[in-house]
Amino acid sequence: MATLLGYDDIFMQHRTGDHPERPARLVSIIETLKRNDLLDRLVPVTERVEPEKWIKTIHSEDYVSRFKSACERELPFIDSPDSSICPDSYRVAGDAVSVTLAACDMIMAGKARNGFCALRPPGHHAEYDRSEGFCLFNNVAIASRYLQQHHRLQRILILDWDVHHGNGTQHSFEKDDTVFYCSIHQHPATLFPGTGWPQEQGEGPGRGYTMNLVLEPGAGDEEVLEMFRVNFLPVAREFRPDFVLISAGFDGHRKDPLAELEMSEKGFEEMLREMKALAETYCMGRLLSLLEGGYQLGTLSKCVLEHVKILMRQEGDEVANQSQEGK
Q1: Residues forming the active site
Q2: Which residues, 6 or more positions from 87, have their beta carbon under 8 angstroms from its beta carbon?
Q3: Between β-strands 3-6 and 43-44, what pairing exists: parallel, antiparallel or unpaired?
C-alpha cells in the first residue's frame, strides 16, 4: 500500500525570479513533509525515463526545438512573459517529465499503490506548439500517452481541479475517446486562460469525453463538491478508467492570490478521498497526482500535506478517520 513521492532537487534550478511559480513552492512542500515525519515514509522515485520520445507524443518538434534554443540563448521567457525560463529550464522541464513517467512505471509494477509528484515547472496550460501560463511541458498529458503506449492501458481518466482551466490538456485529447478529461475551474469569463466553457465537450469521436465544470467567483467547497459528485463522478464511473491522473492545483483555495474561489483544505481532501475510492474500485488503486498551481506557500504546503496523508491511508484507516471526523 506504499505511496510514492516524485521529486528531485533539480526542480529548484528552474529559476523564475520574482514570479508566483517559484522554487520556494517546493521548498515549502518538502520542509512541511519533513516536519511532519512523512518524507521518509514515502517511496522515492529513483529511476528515470528518457523523456524526449514521450514529450513528442504531445508537443511538436518545432516547439521542443524552440524551447531548447530559447534556454541556450538565455532568453527570459518563451512565448509569453508569464512563462519565465532560465538556461536550465529545458533540462528541468524534461526531468519533471522523466520523474512523472518513472512514477507511472512504479505504480504499474506494484512498487507503489499511488503517488504524488511535487513538480516544477507545472504543465496543464502547455499546448502542442507553445508554452502558456507558467507551463512548459504538459506532464499529465505526456503521462497519459505513456501509460497507453508503453503500458498498453486503454482508458485514462484525468481530473484537473486547478482553479485555471487546463487548456493544453483538453486540446491534447479533445478528439480522443480513450482519455476522459474533466476540469473544475473558475468561470473562463473571469480568469485566465479564458477557455473551458461548459459547451466544450470534445470533438468527433471525443465528444462527451471532455467535461468542463465552471464556478462563479466566490464559490466554495459546497459548490465544488456538488458539481464533482453530481456531474463528474457518475460519468467517471461509467468510463471505468484503467488509471487515474489528477492535475492537482491548490490555487482554488480562498487564501490564494491568483484567483477568486473560496475553497478550504477540506474541499480538496473530499475530492481526493472520492478519487482514491474510484481508483480502488476500477483500477486497483492506480492513481498519480501531479502538482499544478498553488501560490500561497503556507496554504499550498498544508494542502499537499493533507493530500499525501490521504494517499498514504489504507482503506481501514480511511474509514476510521471519516468516522472520527463525523463525531
Answers
A1: 125
A2: 71, 72, 74
A3: parallel
- In the sheet that holds 287-291, the strands lie side by side as 43-44, 3-6, 114-117, 287-291, 243-248, 156-160, 179-186, 210-215
Cβ burial 195-212 (10 Å sphere, 16+ → b, else e): bbeeebebeeebeebbbb
Pairing label, strands 156-160, 243-248: parallel
Phi-psi sector, 194: left (phi>0), alpha (psi -120 to 50), beta: left
Taking the C-alpha atoms of residue 182 and residue 209, their distance in angstroms, rounded to an integer, is 8
Least Cα distance to 45 among 7, 11, 96 occurs for 7
Question: Cα separation of 55 and 131, whole Å?
Answer: 13
Q: Which grid cell is 327? A: 463525531
DSSP string, 170-191: HHHHTT-SSEEEEEEEE-TTTS
Cis peptide before 193 (omega within 30 of 0): yes
Q: Residue 230: exposed, middle, or buried by beta-carbon count in 10 A (0-12, 13-18, 19+)?
A: exposed
- The C-alpha cell of 146 is what? 505513456
Q: What are the structural domains, with CATH classification, of the chain?
A: 3-313 (3.40.800.20)
Q: Say if strands 179-186 and 210-215 run parallel, antiparallel, or are unpaired.
A: parallel
Torsion of CA 225, 228, 233, 239, to 10 degrees: -160
Q: Give the pLDDT confidence score for residue 152 in this predicted structure.
A: 98
What 3-state DSSP class applies to 261? Answer: coil
Give residue 315's pLDDT: 61
Residue numbers of the chain with a pLDDT score lower than 70: 315-327
**What pLDDT is recorded for position 314?**
77
Burial class (CB in 10 A: 0-12, 13-18, 19+), 18: exposed
Which amino acid type is present at position 84? Answer: S
